[in-house]
């Protein structure tokens, strides 16, 4: 027998033994049960009704099964490994050690049938269905025992669902009744729809929210009574909404804002604020009691939405609180409304603000991509100074260092290290000369100025000094939409310590020479981000980021620069770059269960050099491969197109880049146990050149560009340490675009038992955070 077949046989034997042990372990769970008790393995609900459509019936059954308590032990492939680990660990003698950790953190105690109350679950199911309009529902419960395991079965026989035939709103003489009537077209109660108690509750809350925008501060949903009449018609109900007769008079009155008092130095531990007359500052409609003269008064004018005489509005109330929080200078924000003692039907508004420490240091460990498209782990140490000029500004001074690495059996090229510093100053407002622009959302708009220096060293090859400055604006429309516009963004890159070996290679390859050329890039940049991934209960969530980079456009137009006519314009003896670059990153997350999801991403990018530039600067070109890209290929080693990236005479792999990019990734993520999560993934993509390069045959984009797509797959473990996520992904190629046509799919060559194959194809990616 060959060594290859022997290895395959060994692998199969190991899998068989593991599955056998797993099965035995799963079967052994019941022997640890208390005497006379049974293992509860779950419950099912059957709805017997010929009127309800099959699809609706199945959805109702699934919804009802989610109400059953307790939940059974978690299963994987029909087995209960967490329960087996709990039993295997046994009773720990101490509240520490490996046995205690396995039993309490990894394992899961058995869910016993003695804890299941069939009658209680039946009543929960009955109440739920009746609240949905299936009045007089009958529910029966039973159980089935097999091999010390028991399941619960619930049978539900609903009556015909009741339908709403009319909805009537308050029609008395109260002013609020007229407000409610005018909003009736937005009512959640619709004629022809089924009766649903949850919808009635939601309608009461909708009405309350409407009234809160009209000054009715003391009103609440319980002041609305829903009268339901089911005495007439065939399974029909009439709903009448009325204001309860015992509603307090103050709940029937709309209120205006009178005084607005702000305490910027409030201390939570103290019951009252001690101050003197000189501490009181009157600014517009506000009374500011700032004992330490901490802020300029206009900070509060920009933050508080209420003005004296305004009708109370919950929207303005919440917007103000959110804006105080988003200033980033307060650890505690409290708002209190009190009836005015001088003006009837008015409220005095008090804001109690507790300051965060003015200066602080923060250390971050990040998985990050820098301006030159190098991806790796970075450590940042940030020193921050809040409220620098008494206007809630934030000064941040950072020093950082990082490295980019992948591990594989073959040469990965020279290691890349970087270090640098960055200083930024952020103002909580738009700063636009000759214009006054106010934000209108709950999020504070910001103006940010940044200066950055980065030293990047590719060992034994070259180093790059990068200087960057920017000035721009950041603002959010809402929690989902964010914009960033840099009206001034300049980058200057110069080489340093270029080795003779690299210079020799650069003489033979023009693309290597471009890496160490001086670069001057300036122009506006804009990015837009949309995401709803913070909505954890949604099954489908999305993320989109679009970027636009316009470099040297106005300058090129004014000077008439044209590289094709050898009319290149230089600034400080460096040709400035002129190009348009677009990039779009779209991601989709499908929630499969509480502990698993399917995540996908597609990236499309294009850059067009013109005028003063014949090619995109190296730092702005697109690359693929690496820890956050196509993980089965070494970082920046793929493409362009079908070009084969070979080692230079000095034994390293030069970076490969292109003007166009297409990349797709999809992965299944699931929690395995404790802090450990697993993933299975597939990545695909490539980069291409707009124009042919004689040194890179096959690199230009063509109509058959899809034939140049690289594909890789793999599996990974992610360790969620709460403060960071450590990721290890093991990947291998499925399709190599640089092989001859007809030979690019390499599925038949996969041989995990072969040392040479593993050395040439397996790549271990170690990174911080998820790839997307």
Automatic annotation (TrEMBL):
Keywords assigned by UniProt? Cell outer membrane, Membrane, Signal, Transmembrane, Transmembrane helix
Q: Which residues are listed as membrane-spanning? A: 12-33
One Pfam family recorded for the sequence: Omp85
The secretion signal range is: none
Question: Ranges for the Bacterial surface antigen (D15) domain?
Answer: 577-737
Localization in the cell:
Membrane
Q: What is this protein called?
A: BamA/TamA family outer membrane protein
